[in-house]
Amino acid sequence: QVQLVESGGGLVQPGGSLRLSCVASRSSFSIYVMGWYRQAPGKQRELVATITSGGGTNYADSVKDRFTISRDDAKNAVALQMDSLKPEDTAVYYCNARNLFTGYEVWGQGTLVTVSL
To answer: pLDDT digit string (tens) for 62-96?
Structure first.
């Protein structure tokens, strides 16, 4: 079973940048569609971005042109580069792995991102 470990959250001022990282515990990483989701206080969890092993990406409209998702299958890792951060980006960010063939999903423990003065 895949386990995901996230890192890189923290406090940043509006307009700043943060980079989130997620490392998977096992190989066969390429069969998983990787994604980042977030959940703000009092709100439902929402998609931020996903990436396939072929490099195909999908972004929420709210983060397009500000966030970039990338993956390194050799390192079983996926990253989310977040630029031009806004207070409304404040949330717990979760890494997600979805098996391309079975649909089986795994979630990381979440990392808090706070955008504030």
So the answer is: 999 999 999 999 999 999 999 999 999 999 999 99
Please give the torsion angle defined by the CA atoms of residues 85, 91, 94 and 100, in that order, rounded to the nearest 10 degrees: -70
User: Following DSSP, what letter does each residue of the chain receive, concatenated?
Assistant: ---EEEE--EEE-TT--EEEEEEESSS-GGGEEEEEEEE-TTS--EEEEEE-TT--EEE-TTTTTTEEEEEEGGGTEEEEEE-S--GGG-EEEEEEEEETTT--EEE---EEEEE--
Q: Which residue(s) pair with 81 in the sheet?
A: 19, 68
Could you report the per-residue pLDDT of 10-58, keeping only the tens digit for each? 999 999 999 999 999 876 777 889 999 999 999 999 999 999 989 999 9
* Cα atoms found within 13 Å of the Cα of residue 34, Cβ hemisphere only: 30
Q: In whole angstroms, what is the distance from residue 74 CA to residue 42 CA?
A: 37
